[in-house]
Each structure stands twice: as structure tokens, then as C-alpha cells.
Amino acid sequence: MVFDTIRNYVFISMNACNMFALIHGSEEVLRARYRSLLQDVPVAILTALCAIVIQIIAFYGSVDWKLSTLFPLLRMLVASAVLLYWFTFKNDTPSLSLIRKRMWAIGAVMMISALLNFNRNLQLLAHTGSDFHYFMIFHTTMYGLCFAFILSRMGIIAYLFNFIFISSALLCIFYGQVEHRYALTALLIMFEVGMLVAMHTSNKTFNRLVTVTTDTQQLLEENQRLAYQDELTQLPNRRLFFQQLEAQLSEAKRKQEGFAVGILDLDQFKPVNDQCGHHTGDQVLKVIGTRLLRLNTAHLQCYRLGGDEFAFLIQGDLRAQVLHALANTLNQTIHQPIQVHAHTFKLFASIGACLYGHDAASGQLLYEQADAALYQAKRQGGAQLMLFTDMATKQQKAS
Fold it and tell me: Does 232 fall in a domain?
């Protein structure tokens, strides 16, 4: 009989958890509920342990030890296991599917605990007198209300948990040896309605705050993206280039590592705007930006500085032949035919680059050196890379 009752309780609790899985909110709300639940777990377990200890003290020596001590100790063991599990995983960042599984497990534990407590109260009613029945009403009501409110982020599970405990308290009122049953029932229902309203309002407010916070965060991220991204080409823009140039310079000084700064300017782009219009020129820049964006890696980052001028930062192997190979790759990428309406364009780029030296004073100086090398490359016919060191060597020979 008891085994059949427990089996039915488990079946009911599993269905209740399935209901919870079907009604949870958006991904952001679910993650926020999970984080909030993690913060509430210690309080909930402390509440449960205190309530269980009070039960043991109240019923010790008055009823069979299995009812007064064994079952509460088993509940304390489960609560301690949950607390240990919480300490183990409180700082991890689980996937959404794992969050659902964990909340499902918590819901199952809550429901099974509530239903087993309901069954235990039935047995206690038959073995205790009036004083204990009053205690059971008060203890069950307060435990159900407090625990459900603490874990209200569980959604429907918290409501079902609360409903089972309140039903158990009502059972004690009508089948126990108590006076003023209807007054006690009215008082209990009043507390229950207040608790349900508070839980519902709290959850609505929580969900609304999560939604507002998520929307605000997305807006901030979008504004930040727009602040550091070129609108036409979707490449990082001039502002981000100089910020990352300074950051890279600081990192290179700290680690005694090298990097290179490059400036890229399209050859013969002005006739595209003059002959075909700025709209066509913008389309050409958009295509080139898309191509350069595909080249971005952890060691190479391309930027649009403005107009037909682009830039790049490169880390790693900085031998001259590596930079010349990169320049060749950039020019091959840019030189691929660009079809805009009835026009086909084939462009090249002049590239100036500067290797970081340990005596570099600032990122601005590196940029100016790369820019000087760029214009030297243009003066020599374009479609090539000019290193600032090569430029300085040639100037020294010429002098």
C-alpha cells in the first residue's frame, strides 16, 4: 500500500516537472531564474534544515522513531546532498539544456518531498493528539509558504509544492483534533491567497526586469558595435584601429614581442567615383571590405580608416618576405573582378607597412611611418608593398 502510494506520488511529480518544462520562458528568463535559484539555494536549505530539526524535537518520544526521527533525518541527508551539489557547481556556466535538466531535477526533489511529507502527516494524525495537530497545521503552513516563496523562480513547481503543503495543513484541520476549524481554514486560505498573489507578482516583476535588462544590454552592445564598426564595409573602423594599435603597442612592450602596422590605399579608385558615381564607388568598397573581412584571423586584423584607405595589424612571423607574401595575398584578393551593375572593376592597392621597434614612442608614430611608406609605394607606381625600413634604407643610399 505504502509502496503503491509512493509510486503514484513519483508519477505525479514527474508529470508536474514535465508541465514545468513546457511553460518556462525565454532563454534569458530561464538563465536568470537559474542564477536566482542558485543564490536562494543556501537560504532554502537552511530553512528546510531548521524546520526538520524543529519537527524532530517536537515529535521525539511521542510517536514511533521512524516517523519522528528516521524520515526527517533522510530529508536532512537529501538537503545536505543538494547543498554539496550546489557548492560543487555554483560557479559553472551550464548550457541551456543542462539548466533545464537541473531545474527538472530540483522540481522532482521538491515534489517528491512534498508528497512524502503529505503521506507522513496522514500517519502522524493517527498517532498524535490535539496539541500535535495544531503544531502540524502551523508547521506545515509556514514551511509550505516560506519554502515555496524562496523557490518561487521554479514557476509552476513552486505553486504545486505550496498547494500540496496547504492541502496537508487543511487535512490536519478537518481530520485532526482541533477546534474552530472554519476560522483556521479561513485564516489559512487568507495567507495562501496572499502568498499566491505575492509569488505571482514577484515572478511577473522578475520576468519584466530580465526582459528590460536583456533589451538594454542588447542595445548597449549594438551601440558599441556601431561605434567601432564601419557602417559600409562592416570592418572595424578608424576609432577601433587606433585603440587596438595602442593596446598592441603596450602588449608588445610588455612581452618584448613584435608586430606590424600596415596602411592600404586603393590605386585608381578616384576614377570609379568620378565616372560611375559615388554609389557605385560605395558598392566597390563594400565588396572589398567583405573580402578583407574574410582574411581576419587571430593574427591579422583589417580595418577601414575612411574613403578608400584601409589598415591592418599583424602579429607573429614578421620577416620581410612574410609581409610581402601578405601584401601579395591582399592584392590578389582585391584584384579579383568586382561586378557592379554593368561595370566590372579590377583594382590594386598600394601598401605601406612599419615594423614595431622597441624604441617606438607611440602608436601614432608607427601609423605615420606606415603612411609615409604607403605614399612612397604610390610614387613608385603602386600595386606593391613598401616597408618603412626599406624606404629609410633607399633614402640613405640616395643621399
Answer: no
69 contact partners, CB below 8 Å, separation of at least 6? 56, 60
Please give the share of the chain, as a percent, with pLDDT higher than 90. 28
Q: One of 230, 265, 308, 371 is an active-site residue; which one? A: 308
Nearest to 388 by CA among 360, 369, 361, 368: 369
Among 220, 251, 269, give the residue marking a domain's end. Answer: 220
- Contact (Cβ atoms closer than 8 angstroms) between residue 68 and residue 57: no
Q: What is the pLDDT of residues 45-80, one digit of tens each?
A: 888 888 888 888 888 888 888 878 888 888 888 888
Q: Is the distance from CB of 347 to CB of 269 less than 8 angstroms? A: yes
Q: Are residues 190 and 294 in the same domain?
A: no
Q: Is 390 a catalytic residue?
A: no
Could you tell me if 49 and 118 are in contact, meaning their C-beta atoms sit under 8 angstroms apart? Answer: no
Q: Which of 188, 220, 252 is the last residue of a domain?
A: 220
Domain that holds residue 330: 238-398
